[in-house]
Specification:
single chain, 268 residues, alpha/beta, Diaminopimelate Epimerase, Chain A, domain 1, 2 domains, 11 helices, 8% strand
Length: 268
């Protein structure tokens, strides 16, 4: 009994010390994320603490942001950070409001990009849009191939495009090659399922229409929803659309004729 009590007391004390240690480590950090001294004395739309942007590119972006704000009323801002962060000090520094979009680039995490969005912006671009934008341009592979500055520039260009598009954007415009390959694979698989379903099961029949209709929810979702849908809503280019249609047709033809080649005696 005493042995059990000693273990219980030791466990409680250990948990208490761990909790206090975590609170001490992160509590001060949370309170300290308000460092106005890291910000410049004069207001500028870009604070590049991590030095991701070349000077010429930063100057062009700052000029472009001012012209865009004067023309549309939308406020675009960029903060890059590496070791320390100004934290909540940027809110007063830039006077961020409901029509503001703040891009934060921080290479310490798994994704370079993060966004702080004003309430009015969500009427044009939903939360899923920002998640997709972050995933497309802020992932490690894109940064490795294109660099931090290109990721910032491309994401800002997409945001500007959607802000001036009537009705905004439900998804991120453009179709990356990796995403198109997935739509092509989905189209081919849908065609294969449709082709196998169309193989005649009765002697003298040419097509099994009933089985095609029964299997239509499966191959229809693969081809229409996952094969054509992402292409149609993200780009007006007809080339990936035609390729996916041809992939569906080719998969269906191969699957339809494959039983004939596999069992020639039955067909003769």
């Amino acid at each position: 009994m005493h042995k059990f009590s000693f273990r219980f007391i030791f466990t409680v004390l250990l948990c208490g010390f761990v909790t206090l240690g975590i609170w001490g480590a992160y509590g001060d950090r949370a309170e300290a994320v308000n460092n106005p001294e890291l910000l410049p004395l004069e207001e500028t739309p870009i604070v590049d603490l991590a030095k991701f942007l070349p000077d010429k590119q930063e100057a062009e972006l700052a000029k472009d942001f001012k012209e865009f704000e004067d023309k549309t009323g939308w406020k675009l801002r960029i903060l890059t950070q590496y070791d320390r962060s100004p934290g909540r000090a940027v809110i007063d520094f830039w006077k961020l409001d409901a029509k503001s979009i703040l891009l934060v680039a921080d290479s310490r995490g798994g994704n370079l990009l993060a966004f702080s969005i004003g309430d009015d912006v969500y009427e044009l671009m939903p939360r899923t849009f920002w998640i997709e934008l972050q995933s497309r341009f802020g992932n490690l592979y894109y940064i490795r191939d294109n660099g931090e500055n290109e990721a910032i520039i491309q994401s800002i260009n997409v945001v500007k495009q959607c802000l001036v598009t009537p009705g905004g954007c439900g998804v991120v415009p453009g179709l990356p090659r990796e995403q198109w390959i997935l739509t092509l694979i989905s189209s081919i698989v849908g065609g294969v399922i449709c082709g196998f379903a169309a193989v005649p099961r009765k002697e003298g029949a040419k097509f099994a229409w009933q089985w095609m209709l029964i299997m239509s929810p499966l191959w229809g979702i693969l081809f229409l929803s996952f094969g054509l849908g992402p292409v149609l809503i993200r780009t007006s280019d007809w080339v990936p659309l035609v390729r996916n249609i041809l992939g569906f047709a080719l998969g269906g033809i191969v699957a339809y004729f494959s039983p004939i080649f596999q069992s020639p005696n039955k067909t003769t």
